Amino acid sequence: MSAASQAAGCPAFHEPGLSVNKARKTAFTDLRLDHSSGHVRYLNGQQVACRGFNCFRAGGHQAWSANVFTLVSDVFPKKATATVVGIGGAMGAFAGLAAHITLGELLTASGPGAYFFAFLIAGLMYLTVLGVAHLLMPKMTPLGDDLKPVYS
């Protein structure tokens, strides 16, 4: 399974009766797995293949981002969706700033060998975010306008 299989309409993601929770988390896991082979190619010294594969991985990252935005609209009411997305975007911007500063210092001090750790940490962040999302919303129960769970 990969982002290409999703784009091709893989039936596993279109099963009738599949819960929103299972479908989202399966898609997140699948998109995370798309990123791992690029790191392996970097480690094996296939830099040209790695550069070409980065284009495919960028598409997988965009699909991940689209799933994150959709996850918010699946759980929060319409009046809160923009606020939650805005707060998440601001936190992402601050985290990105901190990551760029830290990575710049690390690469300046350590040289090109530090790219291994940069790719390793970047790849592990997808699993970390998926884990945190699962801990915060194990069943992805939608919230009503009063921000209390709505059970169907």
Describe the structure.
The protein is mostly helical. The protein has a domain of 94 residues. It is built from 5 helices and no strands. α2 runs antiparallel to α5.
- Outline: globular
Question: Which sequence of SSEs, written as H and E, runs from N to C?
Answer: HHHHH
User: Percentage of helical residues?
Assistant: over 70%
Low-confidence stretches: 1-9
Overall structural class, as computed from helix and strand content, comes to mainly alpha
The mean pLDDT is 78
Please, how many helices?
A: 5
- Please give the largest β-sheet: none
Distance between the termini: 31 Å
Radius of gyration: 18 Å
Number of strands: 0
Strand content: under 5%
Question: How is this structure best summarized?
Answer:
Helix content is 74%, strand content 0%. The protein has five helices and no strands. Residues 1-9 have low confidence and may be disordered.
